[in-house]
Design a protein that fits this description.
This protein is 16% helix and 37% strand. The protein is of the alpha+beta class and 284 residues long.
């Protein structure tokens, strides 16, 4: 079973019956994958027990799946044409195929992971990612729902990068511990030989999380900003290669790509100097 033992009022619908399933499939002219129907027979939607999926070198996050409720239009598994009007919202999604054949699995109104029935046999949709706001793109994720579930990723016993290695030879830009939203975050940021490295420790009353990220200096976009608490913060975004290892609940989440992170410090001067150093180093 793929479900977490909780009560997800947003996604979990009434227990599935054969009449409900028949009504849903007749209403939309689509047949749900056998594996998904089997999961719905145990729980009609909800939070996933494992919410990370490793597809190739990329980790995607699908936290929950909507159950089916054939009499409802929203907050249930249904074609995206139920949720959005391409014409009224001015969405340029001509390359996405028939929106009536894109069925929501998970999303937030800006992006969705979908059962994609465009160009597939009955009952065997592929999984696609649809961005309807930022880039209006559709990207293939998996060839089937079974393949998606088989790619569930709960982490590894060891980090793939050398976590905790010394800082000899590094230029240390930031080393600080600050309270952020009830937690204490310790950051060490340094650079050496065209590589930028960040080591993070997050502590609260219940647990400790460790993390490390590395990037090629030339691949970074660096922005100095102000947080909601009016604290200066350094935002790092990767536009190329990077790697990360995050320790959560005793398992290491290893990922080849680490897109962005935010560095907090008590010292605005430290962050300003780090920002200027990284920008100057990129130009050099």
């Amino acid at each position: 079973m793929i479900w977490k033992a909780d009560d997800n009022q947003r996604c979990t619908k009434a227990p599935l019956t054969s009449a409900m399933l028949e009504k849903w499939e007749k209403k939309y002219g689509l047949k749900l994958p056998e594996r998904l129907v089997a999961e719905f027979n145990s729980k009609n939607g909800g939070t996933l027990a494992i919410n990370r999926f490793k597809v190739g070198e990329e980790i995607i996050n699908i936290h929950e799946i909507f159950g089916i409720s054939p009499d409802d239009q929203y907050s249930c598994m249904a074609p995206l044409s139920n949720w959005h009007s391409w014409e009224e919202e001015g969405l340029n999604l001509k390359d996405h195929g028939d929106p009536k054949k894109l069925v929501l699995l998970y999303g937030d109104g800006h992006f969705y992971y979908c059962l994609d029935y465009n160009g597939t046999p009955a009952g065997k949709p592929k999984i696609s990612y649809v961005d309807i706001e930022c880039s209006s793109k559709k990207a293939a994720v998996c060839s089937s729902f079974d393949e998606l579930i088989a790619s569930a990723y709960s982490g590894d016993e060891k980090p793939r990068i050398e976590y905790g290695a010394g800082w000899k030879g590094y230029t240390i830009l930031v080393k600080d511990t600050v309270p952020v939203e009830g937690r204490f975050i310790s950051n060490t940021l340094g650079t050496k030989g065209g590589k930028v490295r960040l080591q993070t420790e997050i502590r609260d009353e219940d647990k400790q999380e460790l993390g490390e990220m590395t990037w090629r200096l030339k691949s970074l976009e660096v922005v100095l900003g102000v947080s909601e608490e009016n604290q200066l913060e350094l935002n790092i975004k990767s536009v190329g290669d990077g790697s990360s290892a995050i320790l959560e609940d005793g398992r290491w989440i290893n990922e080849r790509f680490c897109w962005r992170t935010t560095i907090h410090s008590k010292s605005a001067d430290k962050l300003e100097k780090a920002f200027r150093f990284l920008v100057a180093s990129k130009k050099g």
